[in-house]
Amino acid sequence: MKRYIYLLISCLIFATSCENFLDITPDGQVKRDELLNTKSGIEDALYGAYSQLRNSSLYGQELSFHTLEILAQYFDCYGNSNITALGKYDYTNTSVKSIFEAIWTEMYKNISNVNSILDSDLIHSSEEFPFNIYKGEALGLRAFMHFDLLRLFTEQITLNPEADGIPYGTEFSLNTPDFRPAKEIYQLIIADLREAERLLAQENEVESTTTFMTERKIHFNLHAARATLARVYLTMGNNDSAYYYADKVIAESGRTLTSKTGVNGDLAGVLSNNETIFGVYYAGFYTRVYPKLQQTVSFSSLNPRSDLMSRYETTSGLDYRSAAYFTTTETGQVRLSKLTDIYELQNIAGNRPTDLTLGINLIRLPEMYLIAAETLLATDYDQALALYNEVIIHRGLEALDARPTPEILTQEIINEERYKEFVGEGQTFFNMKRQNLSILAVDGETTYSPSNSIYVVPIPDIEYENRY
Questions:
Q1: Which domain holds residue 75?
Q2: How far apart are CA 253 and CA 297, in angstroms?
Q3: Cβ atoms within 10 A of the Cβ of 45, count?
Q4: What is the DSSP-derived secondary structure letter of residue 460?
Q5: What pLDDT is recorded for position 465?
Q6: Among 20, 86, 23, CA closest to 281
């Protein structure tokens, strides 16, 4: 982990336009003590941490629509040998190694930023509002980032309970934290998330009381903590706890599944008004997405696998995601348009409705329904089926048990729904890894058998080189 002499942070500029969202721009290097000795300084530091999540090495590209989706075999790029190497899980390739080195260093850099907030005197001195909210968001972010590092760079815990882990950063320090076993990292993640849940419990009572408390879906909020706990427990194989938290999000978050006719454009460079539990505000996401997903440049643009659109074809209703997520160029090339801001694409950004927030969706409600369905599959089939049916009905499909030839809900059917729903969102590779699934390559012919050589990304060399 690289060492940082100062905290690089981005300051907050409040947008004055009628769109009522936050604009975040870098404002140089700010000394830690000067930044964190006021409430406004802590808020600026938190916004800086959120802004770092949209870094291209993190959720602004690699951990959303690019690297993780190439690993999941959604895309290829025939003219790019580096992308080809990534799609073949060649973790020794120099370019591939540099991608994961950047993910590792940028994530730990931001974890250190968050720890600086948690170390501040004001956070320690009070649990009253707003300091409970500040601390809850910071703890939740710390856990969220560690969890994605853990499930990328370590073995699946259910296959090897004694798996090696990663460092868990809890201090703003020049010293590199020690590595800990994966099982210990999971417990630290859970502890941070449950404390975040406790601290954020007051959130609904104070929502919109200050500027900081508006637009909670671009903050790591109470329901983001619970949704992440559902992810963590599912990955650990603890179905009871995974269901408990997924169900709480479904019942208490106030989010609803988007109707089938509302799917078109619901995620097109914006946070879903209905489904987003947590996302990152990012006005520049279009400039990242367009060259990779919308253009057809042979050496850089990503081509969806040839059979991808056919996955949405069905005789049991019209899957509205097919038209919402994909477009076909004049030359017949399929493009994933799910994440492309349609107002920017059509050069009519001024016509974008003011209630839309530009950004990257990190957790959405359908995932909670599918987690709940999966965890109930063996113990309460009827409820599992009902939860699954809710998702597919809202996408235009008939309920499994209402079809001319009723179908039985299985894990494979849930996996297929995940595959279709979350294309471009960086979740499928993790779902495959969790279940130790074989992966059908983008060519439709090669099958990669599950193994650590596929599912465990080596920890970057720089981590060991920087230790002394």
A1: 10-462
A2: 41
A3: 26
A4: P
A5: 85
A6: 23
290 within a domain of the structure (yes/no): yes
> Is the model's pLDDT at 466 over the cut of 80?
no
CA angle 2, 141, 247 (to 5 degrees): 145
Q: How many domains does the chain have?
A: 1
Query: What is the mean predicted confidence (pLDDT) over 15-26?
Result: 32
> pLDDT band at residue 70, thresholds of 50, 70 and 90?
very high
Long-range contacts of 244-249 (CB under 8 A, 24+ apart): 246/368, 246/369, 246/371, 246/372, 246/375, 247/368, 247/372, 249/223, 249/277, 249/365, 249/368
How much is the mean pLDDT over the chain? 92
Asked if residues 123 and 42 have their Cβ atoms less than 8 Å apart, the reply is yes
Q: What is the pLDDT of residue 173?
A: 73
pLDDT in tens, 160-178: 999 999 999 998 876 778 9
Q: Helical H runs in 237-301? A: 239-252, 285-289
Amino acid present at 365: L
Domain at 116, CATH number: 1.25.40.390
Bridge partners for 114 per DSSP: none
* pTM of the predicted model over 0.70: yes
**Cis omega (within 30 of 0) on the bond before 130?**
yes
